[in-house]
Amino acid sequence: MVRKYDIFELTLNGPKDGNPFVDVDLRAVFTYMNRKHTVSGFYDGNGIYKIRFMPCREGVWKYETQCNVDELNGVTGEFTCTEAAPGEHGPVRVHNQFHFAHDDGTPFYPVGTTAYAWTHQQPEIVEQTLKTLKDSPFNKIRMCVFPKHYVYNLNEPPLYPYEGGLIEGVKAEDIRYAGPAFAGAENTNYKFDYMRFNPNFWRDFETRIAQLRDLGIQADIIIFHPYDRWGFSRMEEPAIQLYLRYLVARLGSFSNVWWSMANEYDLFRGRTEQDWERWAYTIVEWDPYEHLRSIHNCTKLYDHSKGWITHVSIQRIDYHSHVELVAKWRERWQKPVVVDEICYEGNIDHGWGNITGEEMTKRFWDVTVRGGYCTHGETYLRDDEVLWWAKGGWLTGSSPARIAFLRRIVEEMGYIDPKPISPMDWDLTWGYSGRQFTYQSETPFGTMATQAAEKMICYFSFAQPAKRSFMLPPDKKYEIEVIDTWNMTIEKLEGTYSGRVDIKLPGRPYVAVRFTMVGDGSSGWFSHTSLTS
Amino acid sequence: MVRKYDIFELTLNGPKDGNPFVDVDLRAVFTYMNRKHTVSGFYDGNGIYKIRFMPCREGVWKYETQCNVDELNGVTGEFTCTEAAPGEHGPVRVHNQFHFAHDDGTPFYPVGTTAYAWTHQQPEIVEQTLKTLKDSPFNKIRMCVFPKHYVYNLNEPPLYPYEGGLIEGVKAEDIRYAGPAFAGAENTNYKFDYMRFNPNFWRDFETRIAQLRDLGIQADIIIFHPYDRWGFSRMEEPAIQLYLRYLVARLGSFSNVWWSMANEYDLFRGRTEQDWERWAYTIVEWDPYEHLRSIHNCTKLYDHSKGWITHVSIQRIDYHSHVELVAKWRERWQKPVVVDEICYEGNIDHGWGNITGEEMTKRFWDVTVRGGYCTHGETYLRDDEVLWWAKGGWLTGSSPARIAFLRRIVEEMGYIDPKPISPMDWDLTWGYSGRQFTYQSETPFGTMATQAAEKMICYFSFAQPAKRSFMLPPDKKYEIEVIDTWNMTIEKLEGTYSGRVDIKLPGRPYVAVRFTMVGDGSSGWFSHTSLTS
After folding, report:
1. What fold characterizes domain A419-517?
2. Cα(first)–Cα(last) distance of chain B, in Å?
3. ipTM of this complex
4. B contacts of A427 (beta carbons < 8 Å)
5. Cβ–Cβ of A355/B467 closer than 8 Å?
6. Distance CA B232, CA B183 (A)
7. Distance between CA B364 and CA B497 in Å, rounded?
8. CATH code linked to domain A2-82
9. Which residue of A has its CA nearest to B467?
10. Can you give the pTM of this predicted structure?
11. Which terminal Cβ of chain B has fewer Cβ within 10 Å, N or C?
């Protein structure tokens, strides 16, 4: 018996000789009703072979192995998939064009953070990271498969994904860490056998994925990244294909996996769009669950219209112009937009890592009310150089509490879509949720067709108005809440409101106003987004 | 005897009958050595005619009148122009392509504010405005000739520029002030004779210009604006030509006059670019002093490459993207850039009038380090509705003190020009002053030709780094100051610095670092910009 969205694991004994990682092509076909999934197995060392499968439907599943080694070929069996464990809703998928939901329909609102190399640290730090995540608002984390070589992250990882390591005579402490070794730099200190994985590394890595899953956190797994002194970013085609298939075979059955083809794909030297497309389609081919897929840029946006890309994973490419573009990015690619790098809260000496908690919170709000999703990171200097964005550890910034507050608001509202800017509120950003409708409204520009919705929220960002007038549909009643997004207060105004409303505001920055339809106006025609939120 | 840059005024008696404003064409030719200026006279009522002239060279000037009325024709005389009064440096002109200097070469760094209708208020408020300006950092003020009809500014002015007023039977208190009456709206409440000026209005207005001059403040006179319920924005061509010539004749001789053809020129209905060009050339024709000329936009930038435009007077046209474009605007138009509307510090219910003092200060810095100049305004709600930006009165915001601090820094540095962004400081804005030079520098990207200058300043804007490394020319010595632009502190580091420097920073937003060359490196080759600063 396996619970829905959990992992069925078939363990088989097979040959140890030669190179089982390369020589043995093991698969299994899992069948339920008219569903049929071909799943890759993998070699786990010591003559042990495994096939993992995540059933997404309850009932009896049958399987049969296929292998070029007789003793692993034609193994059959079946198991019953029962109800999902409480709180387990299955993999996240695109929902309503610009949003996300779990496989069982439960809405998922990504609230991301970033700790690229958290699994490559000493165990006590790894455990601390999990503890921090448990108490944080974050339900998605960007993290690398390969260890990371970059500022504030120059330590050697405890484990390597491949057999090999430092070449004879070189000591880790002798290597001069002269800044980032972006992919393509020569490396003469390490030697790895890219045809032989190190199962210890992978067992450790997948334990972390499982721990995240049990915390309800999506692992946005970064398959390649360019911050490398070991050579993992410069592997050649056969090694890459072997890696991708091994990765999917081991990790694809975890319900909380997202595939991020690269961090800053455009910093790799000598890699072409054709390369990224080919590797992405290897993932598409071997992943029967269709986990979310994306690719993340440095200075050059990827063509997110490509068919394999499920959602836009974007890093701002202009230091000043970014969050206000989210609605345009949605328009442009017609996919969910996740702003996966918007600078980090911190105080380091790099422009991407020294914004204030206020600014980080503002960017989260600016993205959210425009119908996008945002990802956090933290880079405060520490004597021990354990900066959250690289190594995990501790969060000390001021934005996470505010992001938790925002998450609560989003969960109350459901999917938020941006409202086109009207002449009256060119300075304001409006997010709508629930059913939208149009009514005729009197404005200084004449009578105009005006959009409204069951739930509406507007955000004043850096502005500090002490008052504002709003036009509500005259025949609907709304409750109004004034939200201080920084001080995390919600002040509900007495009564209900229709037509023109003059509201007193705090005269401080970072204020939002939420309008929620009540009474007659809202009965009988909630949309499905409202029903599931 | 007239002091240089002061006004020589010739008063003549002439006909009172008919319409002297239209019927009498009075001019004078002023001659000094090979200089010859033709100046328009004007009718001041009661049979009094005046010709005003501002001499910009010391020595004996001669004049002779020309008029279509015999008794005013052929009047001759001379006067001696002596040294300018202390502190009087003459009209401001464009200097060094992107900057300004007075006629005598003294640098002028515009630090603007805005009080559109301050001269149209009751005398006690007007006097209060002058008192406030005296203690403020502002040396330029944007102000309208015509009274203004707009939110928070609906009162009737004490004086009209023309004969006429409310039509019989209409009382000021009966007029329904239904929002802005942008130019082109019908007006049935007032009637003016656009062929007959009201000398009382003009005497009052020019008194205010003189008072500004005596405070060392440039009057950026807005010739047309669209916020109008009287009809002044809808005058027809003969009236406009008469108005422009009268304006120049009365005010052109004030050393502190700038001509702003319009505020938000693109809000006038039915006015074409040809109209604005024609009216601008009327100013060019009648103004012998070549006072600065500009035109200010709402949502559509004017073509600032036009020959008559001396400097770019710009209002941001995007709510989010503006100050970071200043260096590009300089490039584009090859003229000084004055950001004459960048939102106002305040808390009103309009997006253009509710930014914080921090944000206003940041925008000033962001504009300044990019080699531009910035203009302030204040819109805090008051029970008496005397908001500075419209009526003048009092300043209560937090930005003016910081703008005074910035003004001091600019005056110390001299003209600031932006440095092109290098790969190392894509997040930083650099302003350079004094002589610039290139040297070879070691960077993570290899040896690169790098620009430096005698005086350099970088601004961290919203970022809050706790440290930063800088590369200085290895063979020059610099003093370094860490400037907290919000708390208005300057911390000078001990000693002098060359080559790579690691600096501890406050870890707060709004910090700048200034580098000033000392010792050998700086001797013998200061540029003229340094000498005059």
Report:
1. Immunoglobulin-like (2.60.40)
2. 31
3. 0.92
4. 319, 350-352
5. no
6. 9
7. 28
8. 2.60.40.10
9. A349
10. 0.94
11. N
